[in-house]
Design goal:
β2, α2 and β3 form a beta-alpha-beta unit. The longest helix is centred in the middle third of the chain and has 16 residues. The chain is of the alpha+beta class and about 425 residues long. The chain is globular, with a radius of gyration of 23 Å. It is built from 17 helices and 15 strands. The N terminus is likely disordered. It comes from Myceligenerans indicum. This is Extracellular solute-binding protein. Belongs to the bacterial solute-binding protein 1 family. Pfam families: SBP_bac_1 (PF01547).
Amino acid sequence: MTLAMGACASGADAADDGGPSTGEVRVWLVGTDTPDEARDYLKTTFEEQNEGSTLVIEEQSWDGLVDKYTTALAGSDAPDVVEVGNTQASAFTSNGYFSEITADEFEELGGSDLLPGFVEAGDWEGAHYALPYYAGSRAVFYSPQLVDGEPPATLDEYVDAAKDMYKKGKFSGMWWPGQDWYNALPFIWENGGYIAEPADDGSWEAGFSTPGGIAGLTQIQDLMLNASNAPADGQETDLQVPFCEGKIGYLSAPTWIQWSINAPEEPESDDGVPGCGSTYGGDLEAFALPGKDGGAAQVFAGGSNIAIAKKSEQRDLAYSALKIMLSDEYQSIIAGIGLIPAKVSLSGDVPQENSIGAAGVEAAAGAKLTPATPKWADVEAQNVLQTQFTRLANGDDVEQVAADIDSQIESILNG
């Protein structure tokens, strides 16, 4: 009786023959990036492979995600499989919220074929916990109706072209809201600077005040002041709105913004955001942000990891769901809508018949991540970079801003 009651309490029932348990698996996906086709495939395939069990997808919001997950994953009603932002993963792996993926499981799920940077983001103390789900590299969007000529070949040419458009008084050569730190990182990396790196004594050393960091910040401020009409305290939200109003030459953004730009001018729901419709979006083009010496720049790789909750009461069923989500079939669906799949071997499934898909794949090849430390989530939560880049947009001294960024980052990471 005790065993039977325990099984019922967990929401899973053991088979009479001692075989696999059955029950309900709850999968938390964040936002709307996972297409309906993939969601349907996951649910249908899981329930076919695990007779008597059901899978429920519960969509979460990116806003307040870390706090909600922290509460849920520590509680008695934790979900079974969760999606988490790649920069947030270490906050959960380091605190024991995720179930370890064994070496054999790792190989079965893709092993060396999985996106290496995202594998690293989900590792903790030499073990695997959160594996890659999808990536979305950044590209530079433009409408040939507004921008003529070939895309710039180097980062310096990109800066000059954006400033030249702005000087002509037609519109922003590029759009840079002051709080947008994601687009700042390529300028730091391409000029030889860095965010933060481990020192010999194990502490973290920030690199915005290095010569490369200063050079990058100088270019960033130049663009903010001499190429952009975006608000100095603006955020990287609803960027398609000014783009669709014809106010922007170059728009550097995640590749998935193409769907917002190409959305109807009249939203289908009251809370929807208008897109361009056939105006500007109809002939949308993109290119990979060029590097300092040509080729694709090192850009920030947005995207997600996927993990099994440590407190999942049906780990075998949760692993079954994880296998489906990392299967070639499921990941090909992800790739089919333009996201970078979790497996390197499937990158060719990203549609590249247009410039947007090609730019996304090219940019993803050299994409980088934020420092692999659980305390990086605190840097983001305290809006360190958002606040400091707003100062740059307001014309504050570059070297002083760099020193303040380094001081705050080191204080948090080494605290």
